[in-house]
Amino acid sequence: MKNLLLAILMIMAFPPLLRGQSPLPKSEPDVALVFSSTVQGEVEPCG
Amino acid sequence: MDTGDLLYSRDSVETPNARQIGNLKAELYMKAYNLMGYDAFTPGELDLSFGVGDLIKMSQQANFPLLAANLIHTGSMQPVFKPYVIKEVGGIKIGIFGLVSGQSSPWGPPEEKDKFKITDPFEAAKNAVGVLKRECRLIVALAHMEADEQKLLVERVPGIHFVINGHLSHAHSTPLLVGQSQILIAGARGEYLGQVDLFQQKMKIYSRYQLNALKADCAEKPEVQAWVAQYKDRLQSVQQPLTMAGGPPMGPSGSASILAVPQLLAFMGEKSCQTCHPREHEHWATTAHARAYWTLVERNKASDPSCLPCHTTGYGSFQDPRARFENVQCEACHGPGEAHPNVRKGMERAEEYECRKCHTATNSPSFNFDIYVRGIIHPR
Q1: Which of B40, B59, B196, B272 lies 20 to 30 A from B88 at CA?
Q2: pLDDT by residue (tens digit) across B72-111?
């Protein structure tokens, strides 16, 4: 019981920074996944 | 990354020299993808149009792996291509695996019939995720699948963070959320690039998704321009001259060619329609449809098989694969007319979705069915 109360107190004192909330985005991502799909079609506009 | 239906097109499989032309185009795309630094590619069913053998040969020109966990050699039960690849970028290990739809089957020449098969994508995904989750923080599925399949995939196979979809043609600007997974759909024809930015903070990774429209003002790479010019020259040398019936109201006319396939209805050409429907024909001759082929001729595109289906009548048609009539004629909207004179049954009226197959956002950005249809409705 004492441990549980201590844990609750700690959470209230130091709320989890990232739990379920978006962080302030940095200007540059660490990684970017870039993708395309179903590209088949004309190589250039047909007219 | 790319999720397939890139290299080949099913539209022109039945047309003369289709395989040679298809491989010319595939080579061009491979060179461009090498230049762009692609990391992985998963084939779609259109990439199997000329058989797995052709795709294996083409993959030898790629500087990146082709991924397909469920396309296997029937005899050895081994995957034809790598099932997955692991990339470490920005300190994050990412596992990427590929899946081909379980609802498609390898096409191709008869000699391939029993050599390759597509196995259950969900089982293949479970195996791939089982391996990847041991060392990767993020797992990405390149899934060339139907919409219902991809939802089942994330429901049945936990642990996939992103499903990058191929096959579906309508781009979604936001991810589809299914449980803890995001399904991302960048649409068709290279109109968009999908982009997931990943931010690492403390022990967590956050994502932000955006679709980037690729517009005509994107700068051209000189080497790609040179490759495209080379492709067009080679295309002209292998494309057989088109023998067409019909022709524009003014301009050169082709020789008549009605090559019906038995059991299927043939396209007859506008001259046949004109016999009984002179008023309708006269009106049609004033429309842009009646000049559609000649816009290709003027732009030196009349050899391009990817342009012909929308600028001719019957080209690449399943009903009559060898039919090819200049311009968008009566039967492009109403269907092949072989049986029409005998049964005296009214022809189908074109529906909006038929028009939109060619009047896409890229080709016809101002297309509005209600307005455009007024221009082609003819007197009865």
Answers
A1: B59
A2: 999 999 999 999 999 999 889 999 999 999 887 666 778 8
Q: Does B154 touch chain A (CB under 8 A)?
A: no
B225 reaches A (C-beta below 8 A): no
Q: Measured between beta carbons, which residues in chain B are less than 8 angstroms from residue A22?
A: 206
Local structure of residue B254 (DSSP, 8 states): P
Q: State whether B228 and A43 contact (CB < 8 Å).
A: yes
Q: What is the mean pLDDT of each run of 10 residues along chain B (380 residues)?
A: 86 68 91 95 91 94 97 95 96 96 77 89 98 97 94 96 90 93 90 92 90 84 93 81 46 34 69 92 94 88 81 71 78 84 70 86 85 86
Residue-wise DSSP of B272-310: HHHHH-HHHHHHHTTSGGGGHHHHHHHTT-TT-TTTHHH
Note whether B94 and B62 are within 8 A (CB): no
B311 CB near a chain A CB, below 8 Å?
yes
- A33 CB neighbours in chain B (<8 A) are 1, 94, 140, 162, 164, 194-196, 198
- State the amino acid at position B127 in one-letter form: N
- Say if the Cβ atoms of B164 and A33 lie within 8 Å: yes
What is the CATH T-level fold of the domain B243-376, as seen in this structure? Answer: Flavocytochrome C3; Chain A, domain 2 (1.10.1130)
Domain limits, chain B: 10-213, 243-376
C-alpha closest to that of B7 among B23, B20, B21, B18: B23
**Both tokens assigned to A47:** 């007219």
